[in-house]
Structure of DUF7992 domain-containing protein:
Amino acid sequence: MSLDVAVPDPPELEETDPNEYDDADVVGDTDYKREEIEALLREGAWAEAFGAWAETTDLDEREFGIVTDLGLLRRFDFFWDSFAERVGYHAPGIPEDWKEREYHPDLDSWGTVSGINAAMTELGQTVCDVLLDEYIEWETEYEAPDDLPDFD
């Protein structure tokens, strides 16, 4: 399936500690290189990744309309995980209590909600892959702490 929509603007990345996310698995330092990543997104990485994702996503135009109405694309976070030398991300999603909160008038089933949440995860991973494969050229210099025990 293919989604035929205009490429939206890339997200503006805010200073957030990725370790605060419930699903975080980040061990690196606090230089998350958000400014550099945001610049790469604006320079074409976002458009390239979004285009690749749109070619394969299961979302239709109605579901993508929900995504844009809720501002989910603006809530993505991308950051450099220096320990793993990878781009990490946090994908926004629709909360479990969407029905009770009347989150969006066009949300009508758990299938729609889980499809949107899965698509946001897939987009986040696609963006990370494009950034790492085609845009990021830096390497992290790891320095061991001075207080490591000597095992000699």
In short: The chain has a mean pLDDT of 87. The two ends are 60 Å apart (CA to CA). Residues 18-135 form one domain. The chain has one domain: 18-135.
